[in-house]
Fold each of these.
Amino acid sequence: QVQLVESGGGLVQPGGSLTLSCAASGNIFSINTMGWYRQAPGNERELVATITSGGRTYYADSVKGRFTVSRDNAKNTVYLRMNSLKPEDTAVYYCNADGLKKPYDSALYSSGPFNSWGQGTQVTVSS
């Protein structure tokens, strides 16, 4: 199993900044894409930003120029720096990762793919 744990959410005023972190752990052989999604009350979960192992990034139009996704491959961690936050950015933010898992910690081979989600962290933008 591969687990994702998010941190860094909270309450911030409009125009403020927050940085979210998400660390992956478990029997990981390799991680391909890591990313962030969000879900506001009454809405479907939507893609915010993703980053591949090679550093290629993708952003939703609504966050381009304001959010920056980055990752530390050595730490299996992805970050989301959010600037110029707006009330419409209020949502639960979820981390996602996909890649290959291994059957046990010291294994030198993959036992198949994984796709895991974090538990979510609340971001509230309000004055």
Amino acid sequence: QVQLVESGGGLVQPGGSLRLSCAASGRISSSNIMAWYRQAPGKQRDFLAYVTSGGFTLYADSVKGRFTISRDNAKNTIYLQMNNLKPEDTAVYYCKYDPYGFWGQGTQVTVSS
């Protein structure tokens, strides 16, 4: 079992920045992939970015250039630095751990003036 706890969400004005964190605990595999997704009201959950335990990253086109994923393996934590936020970025942001497909509880991000 792996537990994931996201934090760092909140209310931010358009053009602002936020940094999300996701801390993993439990049976952490030395080889894993951790990812960020988001789900806006009434929409499907969308992939944003992932980072492997070796540091390889991949981004969805929708966030490339604005969002940066990173990780601290010593802390079993990943981060999502989000810059130039837009109202359409408003969603619940989820962390996912693979293998095994564990999800965190999500953290709300609201971009509004």
Amino acid sequence: QVQLVESGGGLVQPGGSLRLSCVASGFAFSSYTVTWYCQAPGKERDLVASISVTGTSTTTDSVKGRFTISRDNVKNTAYLQMNSLKPEDTATYYCNAAWHYFSYWGQGTQVTVSL
């Protein structure tokens, strides 16, 4: 059974940090590009960061220098380290794994940045 399970979200004050995890099972995780997306209420789902099978990563401009994506293919897990969080980072964060026409999504984890 294919699964992607995100965790690590929560309530954090501005300037704080969180580390999101995305644990994969049921498919060859190491062969898939992993991408983190975020979706705020009433807005579209936006790409946050992506990491290729070789470990090459990209991040969207709004989180550059604050967020870091990584992966551990032994643990079948991807991470999103989020530092210097801002209220505008508040959203549900989703993990996606994609290879050719295969694409899997997790259920999302809520991140709320507020005093």
Amino acid sequence: VQLQASGGGLVQAGGSQRLTCAAPLSIFRFITIAWHRQAPGKQRELVASITSTGRTNYRDSVEGRFIISRDNVKNMVYLQMNSLRSEDTAVYYCNAPEQGYWGQGTQVTVSS
């Protein structure tokens, strides 16, 4: 099973981008979905997560700038990224951490 991340691209610093994770899972509404990112030469890191009940969690560096949300009808999770910085440049992945499912990643490049 693969999740499908999309929405990446090139954006100027200070701009916004919205990523989408499509999760064609029958159990979607019951599971936590997370976004991770990996910058060149760095380890993959957790960016944000959202539980089945809508509880969210963010890493400190994106708190107040990024918003994770979900649509349990469309089986989608979104990551709205605002006030983007060059250090947000990375490949972004979505995953279902409890099931071990991953998407293929989408590149976000923030130009300064």
